[in-house]
Amino acid sequence: MDIENMRAFNKVAELKSISAAANELHHLQSNMSNKIKNIEKQFNTQLFFRHSNGVELTQNGEKLYQQFKKMILLWEETTAIISNKEENILIGIPQSTFPMQFNTIIKDFYSQFPNKKLSIVSATTNELIYKIVNRELTIAYVAELEKDNLFQDKQIISEMLSRDKLVFIGKTKGIPLQKILTEERLYVFNKQCYSYRALINLMNDFNIQNTSISEINIVETLFDICKNELGIGIIPESIAVKYNIQVYETLPDKYSELRQMFIYHKDHTISSAEKWLIEKSKPVFKN
């Protein structure tokens, strides 16, 4: 079993199509089909269910996919170590929502990949998308409202990490939503972020105008302002929980639904080190 056959098998599993996998890996479809048949013959078991719309992994196929995934990653790590190849990974993050636990992941990253360089850029979601499209970043972690569709650009590939909700923090208990929107001073991280877009969508639908919307891009400062009842902030629920904020009110569902994703350019091949970062960050975002 060689590494290219493992990659071929996993690509078919991920795309759920032999023809799509063959096209992406620049193989003939007949060659790709033969690779899959030979792997099934080697393990003496059916690994895919075939149907008119493509293929699906069987139970044994799923087990083999996970094992091949580990073996491919190990092979790529070994190749990088032996060749002493230095790789510069450029990651984009939204500072306002990035998990604090990621600091530990970065420390572990340098232990795991001593020959890699890791550069981190903080920017708004729109800026991160622009940098990915223009190949200024290799991967980026971003957040968007559920109703937004920021990744229409066919040059971008995105993958879901987690879902979240936007909440009001500050003195909101017992105050009607309309009064919060019309009379309170409101704070968001910045006016290019999802919190501001959600707030504007909400106010437009209620036909409300409020000129008292301010930007505070330092999380701790925003919390202090709201704690001292100097205004009301709009932040993700996950951040409220991580900072032990126990009293908050969720925005109406239509405006609060948020998703965390990672994105990369369609022509960028995810390296073993980047795969490691992505896999390690998934549970952090889901907590």
From TrEMBL:
Species in which this protein is naturally found: Listeria ivanovii (strain ATCC BAA-678 / PAM 55)
Entry keywords, A to Z: DNA-binding, Transcription, Transcription regulation
Name recorded for this polypeptide: Putative transcription regulator LysR-gltR family
Molecular function GO terms recorded: DNA-binding transcription factor activity; transcription cis-regulatory region binding
InterPro entries in alphabetical order: LysR_HTH_N (IPR000847), LysR_subst-bd (IPR005119), WH-like_DNA-bd_sf (IPR036388), WH_DNA-bd_sf (IPR036390)
Domain HTH lysR-type: 1-58
Pfam families found in the cross-reference section: HTH_1 (PF00126), LysR_substrate (PF03466)
Protein family: Belongs to the LysR transcriptional regulatory family.
